[in-house]
Specification:
The protein contains 14 helices and 2 strands; from the N terminus they run H-E-E-H-H-H-H-H-H-H-H-H-H-H-H-H. It is mainly alpha-helical. 32% of the residues are buried.
Length: 270
């Protein structure tokens, strides 16, 4: 009995790997597809299909039989816990993309630092809205940032993920994972059609989420292939800087601001 139980998580993990390979193969086979709405051309990338497929198959009505084993609690916990390690090769690729354009990036380097203040908007705009719709301590976790690894680590260390704050940041992390990539894939070509600079959009792609950055920059490249290397370099540099500077912006600026606003909005923070 014990040996069968011990083997179960391992067999589920093998199923997860096979399932992931099949989803990736199907998504790559579909390739990049585009839809035009007037002058706006929206490109859907293989990453978007992979997310949609796994989202749909994860719905309770489909999560039966072998899919129930694929979406087991062990696999879900493993995927969430070790996601950062899976992203490390991608981070190394970012560095390789930045190097050829380093002189061009340094000429506008100060703009990269200014964009870090955009992280405060989750507190300035998101916190009042969260309080308005009835959230309390959950709002601390859900509005500290975009709910990626940095915010997740900070909240889990300070409050634990079993707290109200932890549930708030976990909810945002899940929502960002499920819908963030889709949102950026659609928004990017719309902003291009409105006349935004390609370089500015590439820089804004580095929000601190590897998947969101990849979706946004890939959509830009699909729309303007001639500037592919510039787009990738700017987006990668922005992502690297956000991953580094975003932590300090969160701890020294966003956290104190959030505490002040929370106490002010809820009359003492209760």
């Amino acid at each position: 009995m014990q040996s069968e139980t011990a083997k179960s998580p391992k067999s589920y993990f093998i199923l997860l790997l096979v399932f992931a390979l099949l989803v990736i193969t199907a998504s790559e086979y579909i390739g990049i597809q585009s839809i035009k709405f007037g002058t706006v051309k929206i490109s859907f990338l293989p990453l978007v299909y992979a997310i949609l497929i796994t989202m749909v198959l994860g719905i309770t009505v489909f999560r039966k039989g072998i899919l129930k084993k694929v979406y087991s609690a062990e696999n879900v916990n493993f995927s969430g816990k070790y996601l950062i390690f899976i992203m490390l090769p991608l981070m190394a690729r970012y560095g390789a993309d930045v190097a050829p354009k380093i002189h061009e990036i340094l000429r506008v380097g100060w703009i990269f630092f200014i964009q870090e203040f955009g992280h405060l908007c989750t507190v300035l705009i998101g916190l009042p809205i969260a309080i308005l719709i009835g959230l309390r301590r959950e709002a601390i976790g859900s509005t500290l940032g975009i709910g990626r690894e940095g915010e997740l680590a900070y909240i889990s260390e300070k409050y634990t993920l079993d707290s109200d704050e932890g549930r708030g940041v976990l909810s945002l992390y899940i929502i960002g994972t499920l819908f963030g990539t889709l949102f950026f894939s659609i928004l990017t070509p719309v902003l291009i059609s409105l006349g935004f600079s390609v370089e500015a959009l590439a820089m804004s792609a580095g929000v601190g989420s590897a998947s969101m950055m990849t979706a946004a920059s890939s959509s830009l490249v699909a729309s303007i292939p001639a500037k592919g290397s510039t787009i990738t370099a700017y987006a990668s540099a922005s992502q690297l800087l956000t991953s580094f500077m975003g932590t300090y912006t969160m701890v020294f600026l966003a956290v104190p601001l959030q505490r002040f606003m929370y106490k002010l909005l809820v009359r003492g923070g209760k």
